[in-house]
């Protein structure tokens, strides 16, 4: 299982990069083997993943990192799927972006 179950990137400025970590846990009573990944596409990435063939003991966890580096404005959705001998865990990803430098105008009290 994945914790958190999904990843949301909120208001990432265009041209910036943000990472979020997800912990995957083997909730079975036997070891599982990581057999592959279906990577997110576009401006999303998964720069930190375990090796294919890695054995995950029963009850053990491992981290993955999901990145978002927007090159265009607007909402984006995707997913990362981690396939194992115990099944596939799919992590939904959603993201929004805004123009860099558009944090708004702040007035001054005077």
Write the layout of secondary structure elements.
Elements (H helix, E strand, L loop, with lengths): L1 E2 L3 E7 L4 E8 L6 E7 L5 E5 L6 E2 L4 E8 L7 E9 L2 E12 L12
Structural class: mainly beta
Largest sheet entry = 5 strands, mixed
Taken in chain order, the helices and strands follow as: EEEEEEEEE
What shape does the CA trace take? elongated
Radius of gyration: 17 Å
User: Count of DSSP helices?
Assistant: 0
- Reading side by side through the largest sheet, how are the strands ordered? 2-9-8-4-6
Proportion in helices: under 10%
User: Roughly how many Å apart are the termini?
Assistant: 53 Å
Structure description:
Residues 104-110 have low confidence and may be disordered. The strands form 2 sheets. A 5-stranded mixed sheet has the order 2-9-8-4-6, with no helix packed on it. The chain has a 4-stranded antiparallel sheet with strand order 1-3-7-5, with no helix packed on it. It is elongated and about 50 Å long. The protein is 0% helix and 55% strand. The chain is mainly beta and 110 residues long.
Spell out the key features of this protein:
0% helix; disordered C terminus; mainly beta; 110 residues; four-stranded antiparallel beta sheet; single chain
């Amino acid at each position: 299982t994945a914790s958190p179950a999904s990843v949301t990137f909120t208001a990432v400025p265009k041209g910036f990069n943000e990472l979020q970590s997800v912990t995957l846990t083997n909730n079975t009573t036997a070891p599982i083997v990581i057999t592959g990944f279906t990577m997110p596409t576009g401006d999303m990435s998964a720069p930190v993943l375990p090796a294919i063939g890695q054995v995950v003991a029963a009850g053990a966890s491992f981290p993955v990192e999901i990145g978002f580096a927007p090159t265009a404005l607007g909402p984006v959705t995707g997913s990362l799927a981690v396939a194992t001998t115990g099944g596939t865990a799919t992590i939904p990803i959603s993201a929004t972006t805004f123009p860099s430098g558009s944090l708004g105008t702040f007035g001054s009290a005077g």
